[in-house]
Amino acid sequence: PETGLDGRSVFWPRGKVLGGSSSINAMIYIRGHARDYDLWRQQGNEGWSFADVLPYFKRAEGSERGDGPYHGADGPLHVTTDRFDDLLVDSFLGAALEAGHKLNGDFNGASQEGVGSYDFTIHKGHRASTAQCYLKPVLKRPNLKVLTKAHARKILMENRQAKGVEYEQAGNIHQVYARKEIILAGGAINSPQLLLLSGIGPAHELRDIGVEVIHDLPGVGKNLQDHLDYAVQYECLKPISAYRYIPFWQQMQIFLKWRLARTGYGAFGPTPAGGFIKSDPAQDIPDLQLHFMPITGEAHGFSGIKKHGFLCHVCQLRPQSRGEITLANTDPLAHPKIQPNYLSDPADLPVLRKGITMVREIFAQASMEEFRGEEFSPGDHIQSNEELDLAIRQGAETIYHPVGTCKMGSDSTSVVNATLKVHGIESLRVVDASIMPTLIGGNTNAPTIMIAEKAADMIRGETPLASESRI
User: Fold this and answer.
1) Measured between alpha carbons, how far is 211 from 294 in angstroms, rounded to an integer?
2) Which of 123, 151, 401, 423 is catalytic?
3) Is 126 among the residues known to form the active site?
4) What is the pTM of this model?
5) Residue 82's pLDDT is what?
């Protein structure tokens, strides 16, 4: 339960399939702002400035935009710029322009600020997950073995050196050993959990729960950050929202069009447009992200859609609040304790509140007038700062971007160094979103893939790709 969210518990889904959460996400391709990575470098992480990581974004990307200063065309990760025609999406973008925001044709280009259509990790109507783009093409390699329905229990240690991994499959416990090193890529939740189960973490916490301490590493599981999100929702006065596709015969039509030609509504991402805006014009970079959807509904799709409508998610990009992942018990199959501590820092709530106000200003423009009906989230009657704050606490949800629990750095709270090796442990690296020192300003799938591309060169001992300064 979250104190900052009026005592509510928040649903945190993860991708427990090949490809991880890239197999269940909304497929938006966003890198974040250049300043995000420059901050990593300023915090002492050599080789992680934007100029350093841009070549790895480009190497990963197979973009329909083609090769250029900011994009790659030949990488394994397919990125589409396809757009589908939708009157509500066009009207939202028009309203944003009327409200004073600028149009941006490429959020991953020279500038992030503005509104526009998103790029997606989609290829010919199919989801371009890491499983599809990286793993499946090489499954027949003789030096690769993939085990499914297997759960890692702990890292096998010997004198502070990682020697192997113990895992459980079909009720049986197995052990596998490494000749060189072990790469831990469980994500922001499971990577710290596995380190803690293996005796690597805050010594006092491990002793309290009954885990033998192998290495006292206070930062394991700490520094948890996530994007909190609030959806501003309106009734649509004309029957043109995606609600028109709810009838079974419409869904079958969409499916057949997708199945036979890989086109139509089923071939596109669910959040076609949005933007990056500033809660205060005096700020250097955007601190809010918008995701527009031509449909309404409860968070996480828990309930059916009941009427025509549209919504805009408001996401605070750089929260100051910090949470933690800790062990609930010593059972490797048990969920860890997830405590995001949303809105625990007083600087966070006013940013989200301002974001709601700015979205309301967009929807109040002439371009949305013929479609704009009743506002039912938070509701027209919710106007004062106190009312908006309460609405946020009672209605905000995660937008699925947890990071930071195995922080990269050299200070006392960091877990890995700039080559992603675990401090104080030999032959062990962490390669996933948990190593991010600070949350980037955008969706986290593309940055996590960049981290993996860069780590691949480190693991193989390759010379890093040459820096490219594009600011």
Assistant:
1) 49
2) 401
3) no
4) 0.97
5) 86
